[in-house]
Write a structure and sequence with these properties.
This protein has 286 residues and is mainly alpha-helical. It contains 15 helices and no strands.
């Protein structure tokens, strides 16, 4: 876990800068001219998903540390991978990118806020929280997740042609850095991950599909296009587990097991994505 603590924040900062490279003012203008879908998506990602996590954590027959891990997993913004999934499913990619970017920008506020409301409830023992400073969490998330997005926007604005020339390289490298963070966390705690998968795999599966079906139910109340629905559901279900692992490793590294939920969720969500992509390819739907 030492490698994750030492290098993962830098990797995450790089990923978030690449998110900034994806931001087009023209696309944002189109979205904000008709902001209904954006605000529905932002509300569902910021409030609906964490509420699902809190409810499942409360009722799930798992240890308090795993419950805290569920909260940590659901309070982070969506991952860059959600943009790829949205594109793969012919959804509104611009909306997905906008939601990923904005929720990432405000994550230095939302993550500490949700954690501060929930962790004291689920982690009753003071030994778990005595070294946790939520202002410190907010500041570090700001520099890990928010500042790099602004840097990406700035670089795109002033060096657009050069950025676009290498955008495929940047996107692919960000994806591999993302995987490296996940895999390094998995490798460093591989034995615990196997144990954790047996203990909480069913909870993670319930969490994933609860978010998916509740998102469908939530969106049924609004008249928005199918493409926008795909984008919002992708944002809700594909969590930024790399960021959750970074936050968890920096602030909760002495709490055994708290990162396992994010690691198991990452493995599970990619299994679902791969299986669904194979299904689409098998029946010529992709």
């Amino acid at each position: 876990m030492e490698i994750v603590i030492k290098y993962a924040p830098w990797g995450m900062a790089y990923i978030m800068m690449i998110v900034g490279f994806s931001l087009s003012l023209t696309e944002f203008n189109q979205i904000f001219q008709k902001p209904k879908s954006f605000f529905i998506g932002a509300i569902s990602q910021t409030f609906l998903v964490p509420i699902v996590g809190i409810v499942i954590a409360y009722f799930a027959p798992i240890s308090p540390v795993y419950k805290a891990g569920v909260i940590l997993t659901t309070c982070v913004p969506s991952a860059v991978m959600s943009n790829f999934v949205t594109k793969m499913l012919s959804g509104n990619t611009a909306l997905s990118v906008a939601l990923t970017s904005v929720t990432s920008l405000i994550s230095f506020i939302t993550i500490p806020f949700i954690l501060s409301l929930s962790l004291e409830f689920f982690l009753e023992s003071e030994k778990y929280l005595k070294n946790v400073n939520f202002i410190d969490i907010s500041l570090k998330i700001f520099f890990i997740a928010t500042v790099p997005v602004f840097v990406g926007i700035f670089l795109r604005s002033f060096f657009y042609d050069k950025i676009m020339k290498f955008i495929n390289f940047f996107n692919k490298s960000a994806f591999f850095v993302f995987l490296a963070i996940i895999l390094s966390a998995v490798y460093s705690d591989s034995e615990k991950l196997l144990i954790g998968y047996k203990e909480i795999g069913f909870v993670v599966a319930i969490l994933f599909f609860a978010i998916y079906f509740l998102s469908l139910f939530w969106l049924s109340f609004f008249s928005i296009s199918n493409e926008d629905q795909i984008g919002i559901i992708s944002e809700n279900t594909i969590q930024n587990n790399a960021l959750a692992i970074v936050v968890g490793s920096v602030f909760f590294s002495d709490i055994s097991g708290i990162l396992l939920v994010s690691a198991v969720y990452a493995v599970f969500q990619y299994k679902v994505i791969i299986l669904y992509k194979l299904y689409l390819m098998r029946f010529n739907k992709l």
